[in-house]
Amino acid sequence: xxxxxxxxxxxxxxxxxxxxxxxxxxxxxxxxxxxxxxxxxxxxxxxxxxxxxxxxxxxxxxxxxxxxxxxxxxxxxxxxxxxxxxxxxxxxxxxxxxxxxxxxxxxxxxxxxxxxxxxxxxxxxxxxxxxxxxxxxxxxxxxxxxxxxxxxxxxxxxxxxxxxxxxxx
Length: 169
Description:
- The chain is of the alpha+beta class.
- It is built from six helices and ten strands, in the order ββαβαβαββββαααββ.
- Helices cover 38% and strands 21% of the residues.
- The strands form four sheets. A four-stranded antiparallel β-sheet has the order 5-6-7-8, covered by helices on one side. A two-stranded antiparallel sheet has the order 1-2.
- Helix 4 (103-114) crosses helix 5 (122-130) and helix 4 packs across helix 6.
């Protein structure tokens, strides 16, 4: 569902779908990348929210995920200790305090929470968060790890020398 419809508002369409009880999975595709728009879309019933531009492979993966009828309901919250990430409202908390994250920081933290305790290489993080065609020589992962550490606590993401990073469990 695109929010910028030529003859109406995508949020209104989504509200009508949910008010009528439609269980139809909805992935929002939009140029609106503000946190308030993302939160609104998820809170009124979107199953996922993707901003443009996006990678087609990622869209297909998300659609396949939402179309699995036999899949048990995915938990809406990923958590390790007092660190949590609410996937529906796009809110993060660390030590009971809400943490404001950029879209990339959110995606990076989500990868860590889905792979708690595992060592993730820079290349794995690049492919999960930035896509496969990102420059492998870039230091973008290091920059975002540093930023994420400042926001959630420096001791939560550990560096494993010569291998990558691990979220402390």
